[in-house]
Amino acid sequence: MLFISRNIQREYFRKLRKTVKLKEKIVSSINISHLAFYCEYLRVAKNVAIFFSFDGEIDTRVLILKLWKKKYNVFLPIIDSILDKKLLFSQYFPNTCLKLNVFNIFEPILHKDMVLSCNDMDVIFVPLVTFDKFGYRLGMGGGFYDKILSNWKKKGFFPIGLAYNFQLVDKIVPLPWEFSLPAVLTPNKLWTWNY
Question: How confident is the model at residue 1 (pLDDT cuts 50, 70, 90)?
Fold first, then answer.
């Protein structure tokens, strides 16, 4: 088997997802927003964390709108500490002011009374660059979600990756601190693994 470095693989899929045409982006976003509610963990959730799309990621805006319509509490990640790779989650409303963080990703302006930790979430939608048939993901390389995914069962939330169909690969060799996801949602399928 040909070995491809993680950085080459990451760059390839980042470029590939930026080539997705507008029509496919819209259709994929709508399909994911419909399929999401087939996941039993989302149907019984109250607090849902989701990312604001960036760098060609699957568009999360339609899903966010649907979550609001169905009266979920929606949260976006905020970088609390770059050194400690710590994310917090701030409640997100239609009128929430957003700012660009150090990585040029939109996040809410920090208001301590609106912020919760990952332990307070029921479901966390996780971004990824690529994923494999065992639920392992390759992220952007910052390690923020790897830290959150560590012992996710004990923390009490259910993580779900979001991706385009073409982001699936045969195998990702995980690093010691990486954990597989129990579910990944693509426009055509809800992938689940036994946990």
Answer: very low
- Look up residue 89 and give its amino acid: F
> Taking 90 as the threshold, does the pLDDT of residue 7 lie above it?
no
Check residue 195 and give its pLDDT: 60
Give the predicted TM-score (pTM) of the model.
Answer: 0.92
**Cα gap 80→87, rounded to integer Å:** 5
**Residue whose structure tokens are 């699957």:** 58
Assign 192 to helix, strand or coil: strand
Count of Cβ atoms closer than 10 Å to residue 41 Cβ? 16
CA atoms within 13 A on the CB side of 68: 13
Distance CA 180, CA 149 (A): 8
* ∠ Cα 105 36 125 (to 5°): 30
Average pLDDT, integer, range 85-90: 87
Question: Shortest CA distance to 138 belongs to which of 148, 146, 147, 128?
Answer: 128
Residue the block writes with tokens 């045409």: 21
